[in-house]
Amino acid sequence: MSNTIFNLSNVQNALVNSPTKGIKMLPLDVVVKVKASEWEQYLDRIQSLCSTKWNKCRKLCARELIYGETKKCHQAGFYISDRNVCLAQKDTKLYYCEATIFIKQYVNNPEVVLICMTNNHTNHVPDNTSEIRTLPLSSEAIKIIEDQLKGGSTYRNTRISMKNILYKFHSDENKSLDIWMHEKLPSQNYCIFTGNLSAYSNNAQNFAFGFPSPSQMMLMRIYQSFCLDTTYNISARNIEILYSLVTHHPDTGKGSPVAYMIINNHSISSINQ
């Protein structure tokens, strides 16, 4: 057991890299010491870095303990889906994951809380794209929402404000779009397409760009038949059009978009490119 006592400023040093790029994990069977006054905030930070929510399992009672409990992964437990009967039923959030941690604070050392992961994740991979819907908001996002609501902001204004924080990267709309296209999406391995419309129009304001994700590109390699779907009026200006390339999904059996393109030029030239 290391004698290092971690805090919020160096929490990442107690973690190791997981098989998923950019995601951390607690080392298995290694006891991590944290300051007792910060252990709950520390756990919140670990959950964010490890893309795992730890739910209380049972309380630990012993004469030498001030506090003790075990926690299970948010995808512990098991559920048999009735999807063959109920086609609209959502996927289960439970995969019988056995990942477990214990949290202990001893009477003879009350200034320190011990956290240890005793069982690793099973039957799922933390931060897989299918798990996004199962995870709660980060503690940072919850704090921002709480502060705005306590400050008198309405629910609607808080929602708009959070949307701007997440998706508005510059006060200038065009620069914000440029940051999203050339920095945010490439960092997630999106394939970016930018149309060259100068051969079809002298209007410098015209644009066309597309962005399939890595998982969408995998589906495109499997299938040869696609449908083109068009959505008009996707913004307040009513001039942008969203084109979606759709194919059959092998798991759901339904139509699934595999690429998107947004244009503000209503000619066929963008599609030809």
Brief characterization of the structure:
The protein is α+β, with helices and mostly antiparallel strands and 273 residues long.
Helix content: 10-25%
Number of domains: 3
Q: What's the number of extended β-strand segments?
A: 13
Largest sheet: 6 strands, mixed
Arithmetic mean pLDDT:
81
User: Which ranges are low-confidence, i.e. pLDDT below 50, for 5 or more consecutive residues?
Assistant: none
Q: Order of helices and strands, N to C? A: EEEEHEEEEHHHEEHEEEH
State the separation between the terminal residues, measured CA to CA.
61 Å
* Structural classification: alpha+beta
Contiguous helical run count = 6
Radius of gyration: 24 Å
What order do the strands of the largest sheet run in, or round the barrel if closed?
1-4-8-7-6-5
Strand content: 15-25%
Specify the overall morphology.
Answer: elongated
Report on this structure.
The protein is elongated. The protein has 273 residues and is of the alpha+beta class. The strands form three sheets. A six-stranded mixed sheet has the order 1-4-8-7-6-5, covered by helices on one side. A five-stranded antiparallel sheet has the order 9-10-13-12-11. It has a two-stranded antiparallel ribbon with strand order 2-3. It has helices at 39-50, 139-150, 155-167, 173-187, 214-222, 269-272; strands spanning 5-6, 16-17, 24-25, 32-35, 54-59, 65-73, 100-106, 112-119, 193-194, 208-210, 227-232, 241-248, 255-263. Helix 2 runs antiparallel to helix 3 (155-167). Strand 5 and strand 6 form a beta hairpin. It contains six helices and 13 strands. It folds into three domains: 5-128, no CATH class; 137-167; 172-272, no CATH class. Helix content is 24%, strand content 25%. The N and C termini lie far apart (61 Å).
